[in-house]
Automatic annotation (TrEMBL):
Coiled coil: none annotated. Signal peptide: none annotated. Pfam families: Pro_dh (PF01619). SUPFAM superfamilies: FAD-linked oxidoreductase. Keywords: FAD, Flavoprotein, Oxidoreductase, Proline metabolism. The keyword Flavoprotein applies. The keyword DNA damage does not apply. One of its GO terms (molecular function) is FAD binding. Belongs to the proline oxidase family. It catalyses: L-proline + a quinone = (S)-1-pyrroline-5-carboxylate + a quinol + H(+); trans-4-hydroxy-L-proline + a quinone = (3R,5S)-1-pyrroline-3-hydroxy-5-carboxylate + a quinol + H(+). Its EC number is 1.5.5.2. Converts proline to delta-1-pyrroline-5-carboxylate. This is Proline dehydrogenase. It comes from Myotis lucifugus (Little brown bat).
Amino acid sequence: WCRSGEEFRMLRTCPVLYSKAGPPTGGWQPLSFDGGAFHLKGTGELMRALLVLRLCAWPPLVTHGLAIQAWSQRLLGSRFSGALLRASIYGQFVAGETAEEVRGCVQQLQTLSLRPLLAVPTEEEPDSAVKTGEAWYEENLSAMLRCVDLSRSLLETPGPNGNILMQLKVTALTSTRLCKELTSWVRRPGASLELSPERLAEAMDSGQDLQVSCLSTEQNQHLRASLSRLQQVAQHAQAQHVRLLVDAEYTSLNPALSLLVAALALRWNRSREGGPWVWNTYQAYLKDTYERLRRDAEAADRAGLAFGVKLVRGAYLDKERDVAQLQGTKDPTQPDYEATSQSYRRCLELMLTHVSHRGPMCHLMVASHNEESVHQATKRMWELGIPPDGPVCFGQLLGMCDHVSLALGQAGYAVYKSIPYGSLEEVIPYLIRRAQENQSVLRGARREWELLSQELRRRLLGRGLRVPS
């Protein structure tokens, strides 16, 4: 693919765009994550957050969440049990059920200088004929398309970079069984070009009758339907000016997910399309992440493609280790927390350097609840001359890490809160599974509890008054 002269000049001038200005005059001042921004939140919100975060850090509650939910429904009745959930866990982590409830939540976030990152809560159940059949994936397609429309309607006027974002879970549109089969094939030495991103992208674009020899007739049919669904979501998202952040999942699925994302990127991340519409997620807790990220960034640069990345530490550490031990395979994860943090720092430095060189052709979400990582990102952005509201943004979960989110938002950085929405029946199982995957994050919320307690004491008892800096 060849760049036009105008596009080539744009790419050549992007490094100058950020680096020539250099750091602003004066020294870099780190943000303060001391909970000072909690004054923006109501007392009721703070009390609920303190209670819910403490409960979620109790392992038995998270481990047996689904059983406890079923028990409470039998004991208290669906109505009272539902009211308790809405007043606690659902109210803390979910935007609401209707479009109006979601809109109200987002408007409240906007008053705090925060932005929405909507997520459709879908959970495939491999043993369920209902939740793995083609009709279920088609229903999920409709839900994803509605999410695109809702994301667009929440922010009628996009920002200067047009960054309306939403999450996309590929296994809501294609089965995990197919992803595992594709992953197995991709990992073989000299894997067939039948499964190249170029061939899949061509099939997506043309709707041609794709046949892959390593798949059965039924699997080929499902692959074609899955490619069609992914293409429909990407096409609609681009038309509505919504960028898709594809969720990472387990290592048994990620090579297949990356293959599908690469195919979408070939079609939708061309520079003439207006930047990266499809972003992939990279998990720093995996040993090979830095090299994969480096190769993918360089490949996108060579091909003249825009490149979008959501950088996370990763949520499946315990499960990945258990699976590796059970199967007798090599553990794909970093050996400890410090090694994961070092991996995250390296990946962050790599991506910020790419952003400084490629400008609007490279976008990054620093999706982290870790204060040190956020400090590193803001300091390097300052040193590289990357503006706070430029192609780098930050992401945290709704209802968590607000002391970091609020401080970033008040300082002018682009901050997104990952927001699931839907009915209690849809969302509570989703939340419980996410809590089980993120137990280390929940257990690490001790500092947030302390800051919440400090602010509540200040309000309710007049103690713990903050001394102005």
